[in-house]
Specification:
single chain, 243 residues, alpha/beta, TIM Barrel, 3-stranded antiparallel beta sheet, 11 strands, 22% strand
């Protein structure tokens, strides 16, 4: 069984859209959003995947979600059928933290031969051996200090080293202010991450916030030879589920 987030109570968050971020920005894709996360970013825009009632980890919205309304369990066969019913042949598995459900995810992907698979991860969890060979691309987003996560939980050296040496992994760093660059450049140096695999993305949940941040973020990318990524889905659909 897989534990998924929901768009509305009982309806799993499985949908077709354009990839909004990173290396595959603009590509038609099928998305599956899994529930649960081992980190707690204070600006997370999918807190409904982890900040359930009784969870006091800090979040700037201070909202607590009803687990039964925002989480649903489905068989791998059911999820595969729903994915197959959508047209894009590129699958993006996001969360939450998808790699927490590695064995079930491996069983799902085995039912989807020919599908190009991307997994979005915070970079702290190793892929299950049965899963790893089925994945074409890892979108790794290590969480910087401004996320509010303790560094010993969010930046696991052995995992960062493994991602840096895996050519399937691209790195996306969420930037809240220009001073975050010191930490990005330190991680890039310490783990010898090639510049063409590093994307910078502004923190923001509205088109106006992104537009304001993107002006100075673009210059940082130019100054340091790193890649820029926007959040296309926010511009197209706003901060909404299932988009």
């Amino acid at each position: 069984m897989l534990t998924l987030a929901t768009t509305t109570p009982g309806e799993p968050e499985i949908f077709a859209s354009l990839q909004g971020e990173g290396l595959s920005l603009g590509r038609p894709s099928t998305f599956v959003r899994l529930s649960r996360c081992n980190l707690a970013c204070q600006w997370c825009d999918t807190a409904y995947t982890w900040r359930f009632e009784g969870d006091n980890r800090p979040h700037r919205d201070a909202l607590a979600f009803d687990r039964t309304q925002n989480q649903v369990a489905l068989s791998e066969e059911d999820v595969a059928a729903r994915i197959t019913a959508l047209s894009p042949d590129r699958l993006v598995v996001t969360g939450g933290e998808p790699l927490l459900q590695g064995p079930a995810l491996a069983r799902l992907l085995a039912l989807l031969p020919g599908m190009h698979v991307e997994i979005e991860t915070n970079g702290t969890v190793a892929p299950h051996p049965a899963l790893d060979g089925l994945v074409h691309q890892y979108n790794v987003s290590p969480k910087l200090a401004h996320s509010g996560n303790p560094a010993d939980l969010a930046l696991v050296p052995e995992r960062l080293q493994a991602w840096a040496t895996d050519p399937r992994a691209v790195f996306k760093f969420v930037i809240a202010q220009a001073t975050d660059m010191a930490q990005v450049l330190g991680l890039q140096h310490d783990y010898a991450i090639p510049a063409d695999r590093v994307f910078l993305m502004a923190e923001g949940r509205t088109p106006a916030e992104l537009a304001a941040h993107n002006r100075w973020l673009a210059q940082l990318c130019l100054d340091h030879g790193l890649r820029f990524t926007d959040r296309l889905h926010i511009h197209l659909y706003g901060d909404t589920r299932g988009t």
